[in-house]
């Protein structure tokens, strides 16, 4: 999120404070869990007067917080789809932000189903979202590979019997998928 707020707050010390105190990951996670955006924004603006413009930007310019695609990952997804590997996703994303992001990202057309935390009102690493995903995807956890960059999400999936890959970069993922026989 820092990417957006750096455009609005010039002072690096103030920017650090804002990102650590006002628009935090924990606060944002509440929106991923389905809490209403208007409620979150109003509450934060009341708690931190003088930062209305920056807090409003979270609501109106969220897509600008996303740094872009990780190099090499889209190619991997296309290769998997081309080989007939069923693709599914579990994403922590607030519903309105997901709809906006999804509209501009055709790669997700390759996925059979996507569980969106904001729609379900539960977010990773909550075990309930993994159980819901397994039901919707139609496969037992042990038959699926969960790929994520967040260690608590990886730990939760592993504890529930999912195969896991802690994502760090596309090259390491490609090597793991090749070793698993999913890529040639």
TrEMBL record:
Record key words, sorted: Hydrolase
UniProt entry tagged with the keyword Hydrolase: yes
Single Gene Ontology MF annotation: hydrolase activity
Positions of transmembrane segments: none
Pfam family, one: Hydrolase
Keyword set includes Mitochondrion: no
InterPro entries the UniProt entry points to: HAD-like_sf, HAD-SF_hydro_IA, HAD_sf
Record PANTHER family: ALPHA-D-GLUCOSE 1-PHOSPHATE PHOSPHATASE (PTHR43611), FLAVIN MONONUCLEOTIDE HYDROLASE 1, CHLOROPLATIC (PTHR43611:SF3)
Protein name: HAD-IA family hydrolase
Organism: Novosphingobium organovorum
């Amino acid at each position: 999120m820092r990417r957006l707020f750096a455009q609005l707050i010039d002072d690096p010390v103030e920017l650090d404070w804002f990102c650590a105190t006002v628009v935090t990951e924990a606060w944002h996670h509440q929106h991923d869990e389905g809490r209403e955006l208007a409620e979150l924004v109003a509450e934060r603006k009341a708690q931190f007067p003088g930062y209305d413009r920056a807090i409003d930007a979270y609501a109106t310019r969220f897509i600008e917080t996303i740094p872009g695609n990780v190099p090499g990952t889209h190619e991997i997804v296309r290769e998997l789809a081309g080989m007939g590997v069923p693709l599914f996703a579990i994403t922590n994303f607030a519903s309105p932000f997901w709809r906006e992001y999804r509209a501009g990202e055709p790669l997700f057309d390759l996925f059979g189903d996507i569980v969106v935390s904001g729609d379900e009102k539960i977010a990773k690493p909550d075990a309930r979202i993994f159980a819901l995903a397994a039901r919707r995807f139609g496969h037992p956890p042990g038959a699926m590979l969960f790929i994520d960059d967040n260690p608590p999400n990886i730990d939760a999936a592993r504890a529930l019997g999912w195969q896991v890959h802690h994502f760090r970069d596309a090259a390491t993922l490609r090597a793991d998928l090749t070793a698993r026989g999913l890529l040639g």
